[in-house]
UniProtKB/TrEMBL annotation:
Pfam families listed in its UniProt record: NTP_transferase
Record lineage: Bacteria, Pseudomonadati, Pseudomonadota, Betaproteobacteria, Burkholderiales
UniProt organism field: Polynucleobacter yangtzensis
Tagged with keyword Nucleotidyltransferase: yes
Source organism superkingdom: Bacteria
Keyword field: Nucleotidyltransferase, Transferase
Protein name in UniProt: Mannose-1-phosphate guanylyltransferase
CDD domains referenced in this protein's UniProt entry, alphabetically: NTP_transferase_like_1
Any one GO molecular function term: nucleotidyltransferase activity
Nucleotidyl transferase domain ranges (all copies): 12-137
Length: 239
């Protein structure tokens, strides 16, 4: 029987240049770098397929043709993959806005940074969250997976209190780092100019002021694969 929650489309962000990963990214887009001989994108795609997600859209800019050549139409993963090419990278929100006609969500959709490594990512739990968001009369605009602040980002991004994510400190709130994994309502992007670069953080902050952003603290394995050294360490750790 078709589970409505599995009809949530997923957008994978893969358009970044990966400057800090050079020289590795001079010849390969960062999301195709491998951990245990499997690309970062392949780790995500296998997890999405396992959770029953069917439709995936991937944006790309730098060496994007290599991403399409490696992944094709997604048949090898049991997925339907489509692409949103960008002449030059449009930043996160700009890339999402440009891809929205292809993602074509009814309301909510899942977005994952192509360059994070999170084995055991609880996609099924996120799909349950989508069902709850759809039923919520307050119509939240975003749900962010927050993680403990990593060594390279000690100051964190946003404050989490209960399930509310905000930009100002409050009693009992904890400042955490945004994982690059979130659920968004298409309306979050409705005021953006199609094809123009736009950052995600300002949109989230505006939504936070309206109490429209929720989230959770995730303590499972999560890594921002930001440098060649970190990639090397992860390959050793997951041997």
């Amino acid at each position: 029987m078709m589970n409505k929650s599995n009809l949530v489309p997923c957008f994978l962000l893969a358009a970044g240049r990966g400057e800090r990963m050079r020289p590795l990214t001079d010849v390969l887009p960062k999301p195709l770098l491998t951990i245990q001989n499997k690309s970062l994108l392949a780790w995500h795609l296998e997890a999405l397929a396992k959770a029953g997600i069917q439709k995936v859209v991937i944006n790309h800019a730098w060496l994007g043709e290599k991403i399409e050549a490696a992944l094709g139409n997604g048949q090898q993963f049991g997925l339907n993959i489509q692409y949103s090419p960008e002449g030059s990278a449009l930043e996160t929100a700009g890339g999402i806005c440009k891809a929205l006609p292809i993602i074509a969500p009814d309301n909510y959709f899942l977005v994952i940074n192509g360059d994070v490594f999170s084995p055991n990512l609880p996609i099924s739990t996120l799909l349950e969250t989508v069902s709850r968001m759809r039923a919520d009369p307050s119509k939240p605009l975003a749900y962010l997976l927050m993680v403990p602040n990593p060594v390279q980002h000690p100051e964190g991004d946003f404050y989490l209190q209960g399930t509310t994510v905000g930009d100002t400190e409050s009693v009992e709130s904890e400042k955490l780092t945004f994982s690059g994994i979130g659920i968004y309502h298409k309306d979050l992007f409705k005021d953006l100019e199609f094809g123009a670069p736009a950052k995600l953080a300002p949109l989230l902050r505006t939504a936070m002021e309206q109490n429209k952003v929720t989230g959770e603290k995730y303590t499972g394995p999560w890594h921002d694969v930001g440098t060649p050294q970190r990639l090397q360490e992860l390959n050793a750790a997951y041997e």
